[in-house]
Amino acid sequence: MTPPVSINNLTVSFDGTPVLENVTFKTRPGELTVIVGRSGSGKSTLLRAVNRLNECFPGCSTTGEVQLALHDGQLDVYSATTCPEHLRARAGMVFQSPNILPVSIARNMLLPQKLVRNVTGRSAEEKMRHMLERVGLLEEVHDRLGAPAATLSGGQQQRLCLARALALEPEILLLDEPTASVDYRSARRIEELLLSLKNELPMLVVSHSLPQTQRLADRVLLIRKGRLVGEWHRGQANAEADFEKMLSTTF
Ligand SMILES: Nc1ncnc2c1ncn2[C@@H]1O[C@H](COP(=O)(O)OP(=O)(O)O)[C@@H](O)[C@H]1O
Ligand SMILES: [Mg+2]
C-alpha cells in the first residue's frame, strides 16, 4: 500500500532558526490524520510544508522529503521539477479563519473553478450546488447565492471555504484548525463531512480539541517544539489507553 503522505526528515527553518526538526511519518490509505500540539509547536508549518506554502515567507528554508501519492503517481513535492502552483491546485487547503473572497457566495464557488480548473457554465454551477449540499450549506443559501459571502455567519463562511476547496477536486486536503472559529453546529457538520470524505481523499487536519481528535483521528501526530514526539493509530494495541496517555498533557 502506497502511503498517501510520506514525510522524511523534514526540517523547516525561519531565518536560520528551526521550527520543525527531522519530522518523519507516513499515513495509510483511508486514514484521517490529526496533528496536535500546543500553540507554536509547528503544526501549521508542517501543513504548509506539504503544499510549499512556507516558501511564501521570506527567510524560510526547507530540507527533507515530502512525497504525495496522487492520482497519476508519486509526487516529489520538493523536486526541482515540481511547480508550487500546480502542487497547490492538487493539495487543497482550508485555513483557521474563513478566507472568503469579497464577492458573492456563488462567485466564491465559481471563480476559483474557472481560474484553477478552467471549469465554467453549467458544469461549474452543478459542482457548486453539489459541494454546497455536501457541506450542508445549500439549504441555507439556495435563495441568496448572489448575496455577498460576507453576510454569512462564521460557521457558514468556513463551510463555504470547504465547499470551494472541494469543488477544485483536490487530491489531498490540508485543514488547519478548520473548526476553531465556528459555532458548534457547523463544527460538527464539518467533522461529519471529513469523516465521510476520508476514504476518497487523504486529509491532514490540525485540531485544537481533544474530543474532536477522538472523534476524527485514525492517526494522531503529536508535535512538541518542532519535533514529532508521539504517534498513535487506531489499530494499535492498547489504542484507547495509549491515546489517553499520549494526549493527556497536550490539550
Ligand atoms: N512566517 C514565519 N516567520 C517566522 N517564524 C514563523 C513563521 N511562521 C511560523 N513561525 C514560527 O514557527 C513556530 C511554529 O509556528 P506554527 O507552525 O504557526 O505553530 P502552531 O501552528 O503549532 O501554533 C513559531 O515559533 C512561530 O513563531
Ligand atoms: Mg497553527
Layout of strands and helices, then pairs:
Blueprint: E1 5-14, E2 17-26, E3 32-36, H1 43-50, E4 60-70, E5 73-76, H2 84-90, E6 91-94, H3 105-117, H4 121-134, H5 138-141, H6 154-167, E7 172-176, H7 184-197, E8 203-206, H8 210-216, E9 219-224, E10 227-233, H9 239-247
Parallel strand pairs: 3-8, 3-9, 6-7, 7-8
Antiparallel strand pairs: 1-2, 1-4, 4-5, 9-10
In short:
With about 250 residues, the chain is α/β, with parallel strands linked by helices. It is about 35% helix and about 25% strand. α3 packs parallel to α6 (about 155-165), α4 packs across α6 and α6 (about 155-165) runs parallel beside α7.
Folded structure, characterized:
The chain is of the alpha/beta class and 251 residues long. The protein has a single domain (5-247), classed as P-loop containing nucleotide triphosphate hydrolases (Rossmann fold). The protein contains nine helices and ten strands. The protein has helices spanning 43-50, 84-90, 105-117, 121-134, 138-141, 154-167, 184-197, 210-216, 239-247; strands at residues 5-14, 17-26, 32-36, 60-70, 73-76, 91-94, 172-176, 203-206, 219-224, 227-233. Helix 3 packs parallel to helix 6 (154-167) and helix 4 (121-134) crosses helix 6 (154-167). The radius of gyration is 18 Å and the shape is globular. Bound molecules: adenosine-5'-diphosphate and magnesium ion (MG).
